[in-house]
Every structure is written in structure tokens, then in C-alpha cells.
Amino acid sequence: MRKKVKPFSYVIPVALCVTMLLSAVKTVAEEPLPKATVETSLGSFEVTLRPDLAPETVNNFKQYLADDFYSGTVFHRVIPGFMIQGGGFDRELNQKPTRSPVVNEAKPTAKNLRGTIAMARTQNPDSATSQFFINLTDNEFLDAGVRGAGYAVFGKVTDGMGVIDAIAAIPTGRQRGMADVPDEPVIIKKITLQP
């Protein structure tokens, strides 16, 4: 004769499992987003990184930070009303050697809005290495699906946008065959990941 199991005996283990699952989800959701402080010759600004949008891109950026790659690089391309670009050249405009490119993680939902930071690349969508740009305005045409693969947004300036605007106001010209180069170098002194 089989022993009858009371339905109530299932309720406690199921309720316990649901509670544990919700607790784990809540912990992940409450984990703060990483932030980086960018010190430049014109002042500092803070970037909040978004590994939830572009995990490989954020990991790539963090590895360059760990290697102290960006210290002494410049914002080499500045176009008012569009964007400022840096992270690849030293103050003499020599390009620094980089690691292998990362896959393009651009998504239609991650928009190139004013203040967002995104990866610079060539015509090849999966060619981004160390260079990044900060949007000075909403640049919808850079979004995935608008005119191709798009440019991967991986964070946003959350403090110090005035520094970005000051960089954008620097007079520019041609140097070493490159256009839109600031006449006076805008140096990235250091980028540090906040603890």
C-alpha cells in the first residue's frame, strides 16, 4: 500500500526555491555598474561602463586599463557637433600597438546618444581595438541597423560632461596626414577603474 503524500509537503520546498532564486536575481540586479575616471589635460570626467550591453567590449576596455595603455595617449580627432575620439595615439601622433580586435557588440537598443562612449573601428565591423569616441550629440546614424553594423556603445559619461565640451571647443587642423587634430594636444593622463 502506497503512502499518501500530503500536497502541503511540496509547498515548503517550492517556496524556498523561489525565495532563493528571487534573492539571487535581486543581488545580480543590485550589483553596481563599474565606473572609470578619465584624467585629461583639460580636467577629469567619469564614465559608467555597461557590461550588460557590451560585455566583451567592457572587458577589452578594462584590460587596456589594467595595462595602463591609455596613459599619455591623446584625443586625436575632435569634431564639434559630432564626437571626440582618442585612445590610440601618443602626443606625437604615433599609433600605439594594440591587442587583437573585439567583436562588434552594437545593438539597436544601445543608442549613440550625447555623452555615450562607443568603440571606434574601421569599415570592418569587428575591427575595434583600443580607440573609443564620446558622442557630443545624438548620432542616430551610428546605431546598429541604421546604416549597417553600427558602433558599439559600452558606457556613458555620468560626470564631467563640461570637460568633454571643452575638448570639443579646441581649435583643430591637419597634422601628419590626419584631419581634425587638436592644435594643442589634449592628453589622457590616466584612466582608472574605480573600486
From TrEMBL:
Give the signal peptide as a residue range, or say none if absent.
1-29
Q: Which reaction does it catalyse?
A: [protein]-peptidylproline (omega=180) = [protein]-peptidylproline (omega=0)
Tell me what organism the protein belongs to: Marinobacter confluentis
Which PANTHER family did the record assign?
PEPTIDYL-PROLYL CIS-TRANS ISOMERASE CYP38, CHLOROPLASTIC
Q: What does this protein do?
A: PPIases accelerate the folding of proteins. It catalyzes the cis-trans isomerization of proline imidic peptide bonds in oligopeptides.
Isomerase as a keyword of this entry, yes or no, is yes
Query: The PPIase cyclophilin-type domain covers which part of the protein?
Result: 32-193
User: From what superkingdom does this record's organism come?
Assistant: Bacteria
* Enzyme Commission number(s) of this protein: 5.2.1.8
Q: Which InterPro entries match?
A: Cyclophilin-like_dom_sf, Cyclophilin-type_PPIase_CS, Cyclophilin-type_PPIase_dom, E_coli_cyclophilin_A-like
The biological process GO terms on file are: protein folding
Question: Which family is it part of?
Answer: Belongs to the cyclophilin-type PPIase family.
One Pfam family matching this protein: Pro_isomerase
Protein name (record): Peptidyl-prolyl cis-trans isomerase
Entry GO MF terms? peptidyl-prolyl cis-trans isomerase activity
